[in-house]
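INFO  loader      accepted 1 record
INFO  loader      residues=436
INFO  predictor   begin
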Amino acid sequence: MSCMKNAKMLFGKTGLELKLPDHTVILEGKDVPAVADAAHAVKDALARPIGTPPLAELVKARKPQTVAITISDITRTVPNRDFLPAMLDVLQSCGVKDEQITIIIGTGMHRASTPEEMAMLVGPEILRRIRTVDHTAEKADTLVRVSNDPPVSLNALFAKADFRIVTGYIEGHFMAGFSGGRKGVCPALVDLATVQRFHGYQTLSDPLADNGLLEGNPCHEIALKVAREVGVDFLFNVAITRDRRIAGIYCGELEAAHQAGCKQVADWTSAQIDGPFDLVVTNGGGFPLDQTFYQTIKGMCTALPALGPGSTLLQVSDCSQQLGSKAYTNLMLRWNNDWQGFLKSIEAKADRTELDQWEYQMQCRVLSRIGMERLWFVSDGIPADMQKRIAVTPVAGPGGVAQRAQKAIDEFVAANPKASLAAIPDGPYTMLRRTK
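INFO  predictor   done
INFO  writer      dumping tokens
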């Protein structure tokens, strides 16, 4: 293996570099630059939105007494601090005072934010000025019913606000097609029962609940119906570069702005492939996404178009917070690698959705394709004994993640010198498209 190429994989906060044979196909989207002047670009977008009058005109016409702005939680690398100041400036110029505004962190069913994370999300100055709270899906007294068929309860602060702004970023999403848009309402701000329906067995069994697909996607349709029911007055979505800077802004009317963003993001982040590879190397998306195994599943599923029945998938992920929530941890350890039994169980009780079962169900898409023995996993964040129980094949041995992953690659290539290889440096942020 005299001719080698380097692949810089997203991993934690530092990244991880691996050496691969020169014939390895690097699967990545276009090298899209950040906007030259983020502050100017944000102001211009707010003044020239898609499908609606400018934000200032909307607010002046409505004269709201309360404004709710929802943002993504710490698992999403949305550059809130690049656009929130300009948005607040517009609101202030229209007579809306700080005390009339609430920023709601759309946690969905994720854990609560720490004080440090809140400051990281919005910046210390905005945190001091503007009331900032977590959505709490499990607390009935913080919710209000917005639909009866099916029953949907939503964050009361958002639902009752006179003016509602949804923010976020757009990327390919392994079950909802794309993130952003309506997902800033559902599942971000809904009750547990709605989250369970959004992630239910039947929903995720549909092959159209997949990356890069919106038409006919049941996840997309459920979320969009909820967002339409409650009403969104203004959407502000961005696309981001690999180093998490703003590359594009799509704001205005909920559906029109989101569709414009999805189209451009698909063009930017797609990589075309002819068929499966023998070995695919990917990652969990780097910090903050790869801090749990729960979120790491996105990287596995994003690689599916590159996997055939005989493929091996090697995934590196930091997982410094181990598996994730207590419910998810208990679920994975209870099934103890019996993923076929898990699938049969949730199919038999399809009308009931256990908390966090959806992520294991998505992992089972990969397991059904290549089997547990060819799903190689490299991490130092999860205890070795626990890794043996989560339906992966841990890459064990001396050394850290980089050393063990490199050894696994080298040994695979030595044993299979004619094997086809691919690497996905951006992991879940790259959408793979089969040409045939």
